[in-house]
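Annotated sample (chain length 277).
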Amino acid sequence: MAGKASKSTKKRSQTNKDDLDVIESGLPGQFVEIYLSVLVYAWLMKDIIGRFFTNPFWYVDIQPDSENINMDEVRRGTTAFGADLYAFWKTVQPGPDKSCLPENKRYSQPWRMWAVRLCNPSDPTWMGSDWGGKDFGDKEVAHRKAMTSAMCDHVLAGEFLQSMLKPLEGPEPIAQRRQSLDHVYQLAADMSFRSWSHVQHLEFGTLNNLNNRFSSEDANLAMAYRYNLFTRRKRFEGHRILSVMKPAIYICGGMNDPSGRELLMPAEVVIDVDPDR
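Output written by the structure step:
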């Protein structure tokens, strides 16, 4: 799927602020050959988390219409109404400025859960089989799927991803690539609404909130599996993290412990072989 990096990809990697050639110089020789494929995988995962697992209401529209998708909203990654709902939800969350009490999570998370369920009436146990708002919910589901499909087209046409993919000839291979990516994005969008439809929710650890230096004592970090074949784990103590292949995953909240946060899976990271950077 991945090809050779073009000059445009030398601008900035989406997994690290360095140029790609700088990142490649920090890899062991055995890893360079597969790194572009890994980078595409990591970039897509980053895009999916940003689109589907940040704002629980990204697809919600007061008048859902699966036949007329707003491309400005696709580019922004959220409907205007979904952005307003998200802003409201964040406003009532406890923050570092202590503007809201920690106890607010006990009420704001169930509110978020029921708002998501109202827009996704796929499980009759949530609302009951005679719930009168099912038609609206079904329209929201159709709108979510159509918006996800449009996002897939937008992502696939983007300069960064196009520069990393092998050129294809003929309509059939191009259609197959698009179908494969749409399948992944639809699964991720479906998984996101299911994760948001419970009081507990998922959070992710990335380069934005993980340590940027590797430590074998840090439970949030694990060396990438293939990377671990090339050298001993202890050799990389204190080395810089180049990229995250898979994010750390946490399960957070709950009625009994609204502020709880439990690590489910550590981040799989690629580490610089040069200890001086």
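Annotation: The chain has two domains: 1-52+200-277, 55-198.
Annotation: Residues 3-15 have pLDDT under 50 and may be disordered.
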